[in-house]
Amino acid sequence: MSVQHQQLFEKIRPAIDSKIAEFKYYQYDAITAEELWRYCVEKKWRKKNVEQLRLHEVIATVFAVSPSDIVSFNQVEFLQSDNWFEEVNTEELKMLLGPVKIL
Length: 103
Prior knowledge:
This protein has about 100 residues and is mostly helical. It has 6 helices and no strands.
């Protein structure tokens, strides 16, 4: 996170914390403030210069985010990642993807 993004994040931290509290109220306990901020920076403002946004625009964007927006964003990020099987070792991959042995 750049210095400007970090400063803006800290400046609107009360709004972010309020949104995270709302998520927790609706049983979305796994979403963190950093994930919410990353979603806004990488998805909502990806073609904008965040430093030039007005404070009310930044806060309005944060308050408009729904839990499903973040979950969908994370799913797409995972599907676009390089290696889906990084947690599986080579032997397990061979067993999963190898030819079927008929007895």
